[in-house]
Amino acid sequence: MAQAGPTIADVVFPDQLNHRGTLFGGAAIALMDRAAFVAASREARTDVVCAGADAIVFTHPIAPGDLVEATAAVERRGRRSMTVSVVVVAEALRTGERREAVRGTFHMVAAEPLETTAPGPGPAAGGEPAPAAGVRSGARRPDTAAPATVEEPSPAAGTRPGAPVPASLQSDTHAPQGETE
């Protein structure tokens, strides 16, 4: 990972657990997304959004009461996009044992082109960052490319603009009362 950037810490509470009694994966990813957002915002100094995430690997369960720290680092930057690696470390507060629990890559997009003179750990700061473990350097895989444009959702959820709306979504009527499944 490039020079470590911001770290966001939190304690795992019972409302964040899954059915197995460990941290719900979505809660871990949300923490990672926030850390990636802070790192990318500092790098871009403009509004950024998450365009996608990949290579998220859960390596160790996180227990209730554990302290979790998500540390992000900008690995690559382009004209508008940045690749941010995030590592989550869990610490058992009673014993002090620390272990890497989750690792992933987030693709952040800036609202405006990035300044080529902006300070930060990316190539503009005077060096090519080392790729994260298991991540190829260079172009993104075609199956993970961020969309070129963002379209407003159509009135019928799940349909493309201009696509025919299924008859089942056109009616405001519901199934007759009294019918059960």
TrEMBL record:
<dbReference type="InterPro" id="IPR006683">
    <property type="entry name" value="Thioestr_dom"/>
</dbReference>
<protein>
    <recommendedName>
        <fullName>HotDog ACOT-type domain-containing protein</fullName>
    </recommendedName>
</protein>
<dbReference type="Pfam" id="PF03061">
    <property type="entry name" value="4HBT"/>
</dbReference>
<dbReference type="InterPro" id="IPR029069">
    <property type="entry name" value="HotDog_dom_sf"/>
</dbReference>
<dbReference type="InterPro" id="IPR033120">
    <property type="entry name" value="HOTDOG_ACOT"/>
</dbReference>
<dbReference type="InterPro" id="IPR040170">
    <property type="entry name" value="Cytosol_ACT"/>
</dbReference>
<dbReference type="GO" id="GO:0009062">
    <property type="term" value="P:fatty acid catabolic process"/>
</dbReference>
<dbReference type="GO" id="GO:0052816">
    <property type="term" value="F:long-chain fatty acyl-CoA hydrolase activity"/>
</dbReference>
<feature type="domain" description="HotDog ACOT-type">
    <location>
        <begin position="2"/>
        <end position="114"/>
    </location>
</feature>
<comment type="similarity">
    <text>Belongs to the acyl coenzyme A hydrolase family.</text>
</comment>
<keyword id="KW-0378">Hydrolase</keyword>
<dbReference type="GO" id="GO:0006637">
    <property type="term" value="P:acyl-CoA metabolic process"/>
</dbReference>
<dbReference type="GO" id="GO:0005829">
    <property type="term" value="C:cytosol"/>
</dbReference>
<feature type="region of interest" description="Disordered">
    <location>
        <begin position="112"/>
        <end position="181"/>
    </location>
</feature>
